[in-house]
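Form 7-S
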Amino acid sequence: MSSTQQLLLGEGAGGPVSVFIEDVYSTYLYTGNGSTQTITNGIDLSSKGGLVWAKSRSDIIRNSLFDTARGANFQLSSNTNESSANVAPNGITFGSTGFTTGSFVNTNTNNATYASWTFRMQPKFFDIVTYTGNGTSQTISHNLGSTPGSIFVKRTDTAANWIVYHIGLSSPNSIHLKLNSSNGQDGNNDMVNGTSSTTFSVGSEVAVNASGGTYVAYLFAHNAGGFGALGTDNVISCGSFSVDGAASFSVNLGYEPQWVMIKSVDNTSVSAIRQNWIIYDNMRALGVQTQGQAARLLPNSDAAESSSNEIGVTATGFESIGNQNPSTGPYIYIAIRRGPMKTPTDATTVFSPNYPPAAQLSPYTATTNFPVDLSLSTIAGSGPYNRTVVDRLRGNPTANQSAIMQPNLTNAESSSGANNYQSLQSNTALIDNAFWSGYSLRPIYWLFRRAPSFFDIVCYTGTGANRTVTHNLGVVPEMMIVKNRSIVAVWRVYLASLGATQNVQLNQSNAAGTVPSIWNDTAPTSSVFTVGTAGGVNGSGESLVAYLFATCAGVSKVGSYTGNGTTQTINCGFGAGGARFVLIKRTDATGDWYVYDTARGMSVLTDPYSLLNTTDAEVATLGSVTTVSTGFALNSAVLADINISAGTFIFLAIA
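Output:
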C-alpha cells in the first residue's frame, strides 16, 4: 500500500485502518431539555476535530455552527452575517463519541426538537482551516487531501457574509454564492479564486481576506475516494443539475445519499421557498416519498422545519418527485453517502425483536441500538390482526401517517390515518402512536437496520420490460421479497435455494412455483437483481419495493434444510447466543410462514410463534423451535409442519 493510501486510511497497530462514512458523519435528532445533554453519535470530535451544525426543527431559531478549530463555545450562524459569538458556558463540548450541548437556546431549548449534523475532519471528506487576512491576496494550506468541491468561508471577528465556493457554478473561481442569503450567484474575482489538493486562494475582498481579519473555512471534498475497505469509495459529492421541461431531474452519485443540500444558482422563475438553501436528510423523511413528504431546513433562514414533496433518493443518487420542481436551473448540491458502510459483526446493531408490556401509554417507544429502517409488526397475543410493514425509505413523514403495507394481504400501499402510525424519525427507536392505551393487546415488533451483507431496501419504478435494478447490499442477495406498491398484487419471494426460475409468495402458503416472468430466469448479483415482465415485480410506471437479505457471518443466515420428522439442529454459524429470530417456510408443498423470536421466547418448545401470511393470533403452546448456541433447533413432536420428513424448507435466521 502506498504512503498516500496509508495517510488516507490512517495507521493502526496492525497497519492501515479503513475509514467509513459512519466514522466521520452523523445526522442526529434530539429534543431539547433546557439544561445539558449528551449526544452519542459515534463521531470522535475531541481527538479528530470537526463541526457540529444544529438547527431547531420546531421553533424559529437560527442555525448554530460550532467547530473544534475556533473552540467549543464560539457560535456562528449560517443564516446571519454576524461575527463569532462566545456563548460560554452553555455552548458545545466535543467528545470522543459525539458532543454535549449546554442550555444555549439555539441548541437546547426545553421541548424544542432539533436536527444536528456532525462532520469529522478527515482527508477526502471534510476539513476546517482558520487563517488571518492580509488585505491583498494569499494562498492557504489545507489538509483535505483532495481538491475541494465546495468551501464555506466566514469572517469571525466582525459581520460579513458567508462566501460559498462551489465547483458546480459555471465559473467557480469568479462566481460565488452566499450561505446566509437566498440570492442567486454573484460574480467577484476577489473571493475564493483558486483551489488545489493542498491549497486554496483568496482575493482582497473583506469577506474573505481583510487585513487582520480572522476567518474560518469549511472544506468539502468531491468524489475523492478514500473510504471503504479498500479506500476507493466516494462518500461526498459536489455538483450541479438542471431541471428539464417536464420539471424533473435525476442525479447519479453512484451511491444512495443520506444528506443533500441544494441551492438554485440564478433564481430565475424559481418560487421563493426554492430560492433558499435547503437541507434534506434521511432521518427526517428523505426517502422515495410516494406517500409522504421530506422535511426541509434552511441554512439561510431561522424558519422551522417545513414539508416538501420535491426530492427523493434512489439506490444511486437523488431525483425529483411528482414534477414538483421548478422548470429552470441550474442547481448546485452537496450530497453525503448513506451509511453504514461497515459489514456488521454484532446482530444487536442491526436487528431487535421488541415485545412491550401490555400496560403502556400511547405513544409507545421501542428502543433499539440503531436507527430503524424497517418495522415488521403485528398484535402478538390476539387475532385476527393484519401484519404491518413500515420502512424509512418508502416515506416516513412528519405528519401523523405512515406508508404501510401488509404481508398477509395483496393490497397496495396506503397511508394510515392520524394518530395511527409508526414513526422512524428517531436515532435509536421506533415510536408507535397506534399503541392501544388501556387495552390488553400487545404488539410484537421486528426491527431491522440496513447494512452491507445483511439487509437492504430498494424502491424502483417498473418498466414492464425485462430489466436490472441496482441495490446496495454489497453481496449476492439470497432472499428477496418484492411488492408492487401501486396495485393489488401478491408478494413475490426469491430464494437462492430455489433458483431464479421459481418463487414463493409471502402472503400465501402455496408451494414454490415456476414463473419465468418474475426473475427472468436470472439470478441476482452483488450489485443488481433482475425482474421480468410480470406486473407484480415490474409493472410499467408502477412503484415497487424490494427487501433483500443475505447470510452475514455471525449475524444472519439465509438457508434451507430437509425435514427429518423428528428433531434436528440447524447450524447457522452463530455464537453462544444462538438465533433471536427465525422465519421458516416449506417450499415443496403448502406451508405457512412461521416467525419465532426471543422477545416472546425461544427457550422452551411451547414458546409462541406467529404466521406472516395470515391474521391468526399467535400460537402459544406449539412453538417447536428453540435457540441453540449455533442457531436453532426443531422438534416435530410438538409441531410437525416445520420438520416434516423429506420436506424442503427455507429459513432466515438472525443472531
